[in-house]
Amino acid sequence: MTPLAVLAGPASPADLVAARTQMALSLGWHIVFACLGVGMPALLLFTEWRAHRTGDADYLRLARRWATAVGVLFAVGAVSGTILSFEMGLLWPGLMGVYGEVIGLPFALEGIAFFIEAIFLGIYLYAWDRLSPRAHLLSGVPVLVAGVASAMFVVSANAWMNQPRGFDLDGGRVTGVAPWAAMFNPATAPQSVHMIIAAFMVSGFGTAGVYAVALLRGRRDRYHRLGFLVPFTLAAALSPVQILAGDFAARFLAGYQPTKLAAAEALFRTGPNAPLHLGGLVLDGQIRYAVEIPSGLSMLVGFTPGTVVQGLDRAAPADRPPIAPVHLAFDTMVGIGTLLLLLSAWLALSWWRRRDMPASPWFLRFASVAGVLAVVAVETGWVVTEVGRQPWIVYGRMRTLEAVNPAPGLWAGFTVVAVVYAVLTVAVVYVLRHVARTGHVAPQETAET
């Protein structure tokens, strides 16, 4: 029992629900801006590079417009990220009190990456006309690198919660801490790759969706076509890569977190010839209405029908995650990934045949919602990651109920945070709509374009 629990008494299930609800809201809200912070700088640098290379005014106009959006999104993401950092200590003192020295390294490195990103983003935004074109372009490179690094550091901390390494336990006390071993645990690679690719896809499909709506409304000029094609092409190119990364992550679960995979696939019995369930609902302890592919899961995990896949029957009932939401979230993520892959293939086929995007308005209609679908895929992916790990906050080492703050007032904190996020949401939508409507971008754009 943690010292805080001794002073305030053990936490109750109500405390746990309040803390998890607040953390889910904060993480779910912040992750959208984190994804845009990772992916948008790549789009921004590419368009500026093309503008300097070709002298194309439309590329430069896109670069300046997107720079303004990146500045707004970074500022809001910094606020939500700060809230999350406080919540780690306020909501989960049991975790940080026991294991803080083990997972402190990635959080420290993330802080350094954040400051590098902030410094160079400030230079980039305010030095358009004070640096040479080459120097200005180069000043944006650290923004991209630091954003990707920041995401990797944070994800590695979460990966450690799924695969705790780099320490020994002696009488309930942490000893022999190896921070680098903890940071580069077995889950770091599959989770980081999957998340970073997802961030670029959210940025690409999300940005393209704005211009898809404009194209549907008749704005067929070159500026809007480029605004659509540049980000959509990036996201489309990454769609098949993400499918492979997801397959890698799922096979990782089979070896390291089999109970999570069993919940995601609603596999109740261990054995060979494990079926793959597409869709379906978990009702009364069984999967119903699913399309079942015989031996499909065994083939995906071990490439042979005889591969033994561990089911939920190998885990004690108290150690099983909530099966219904994990399975539903997993199917939603995979289904959306498949739809985005098909939409990407539609563009590739049209470009191969006609050197142009599809003429059907249905393509643009689907593309206009692709960004929202990509966000839903990311959110449901995190539901699989976090809810699928339950009841453990540190897999196999510490239960979530042991880590939560037992002090009263957690629901009040949730209410305050919810109000803050509601205000931030309204403010972000208002500012971005104002930028889109008025064309207010970085200084000197009108004169140069």
UniProtKB/TrEMBL annotation:
Keyword list, A-Z: Cell membrane, Electron transport, Heme, Iron, Membrane, Metal-binding, Transmembrane, Transmembrane helix, Transport
Top-level division of the source organism's lineage: Bacteria
Primary residence: membrane
Cellular compartments annotated: Cell membrane
GO biological process terms held by the UniProt record: aerobic electron transport chain
Transmembrane regions: 28-46, 66-86, 106-128, 140-161, 193-214, 226-245, 328-350, 362-384, 410-432
Gene Ontology cellular component list: cytochrome complex; plasma membrane
Pfam families cross-referenced by the UniProt entry: Cyt_bd_oxida_I (PF01654)
Entry membrane topology: Multi-pass membrane protein
Molecular function in Gene Ontology: electron transfer activity; heme binding; metal ion binding; oxidoreductase activity, acting on diphenols and related substances as donors, oxygen as acceptor
Keyword match Transmembrane helix: yes
Family as reported in the entry's similarity comment: Belongs to the cytochrome ubiquinol oxidase subunit 1 family.
Entries under PANTHER family matching the protein: CYTOCHROME BD MENAQUINOL OXIDASE SUBUNIT I-RELATED, CYTOCHROME D UBIQUINOL OXIDASE
Name the UniProt record assigns to this protein: Cytochrome ubiquinol oxidase subunit I
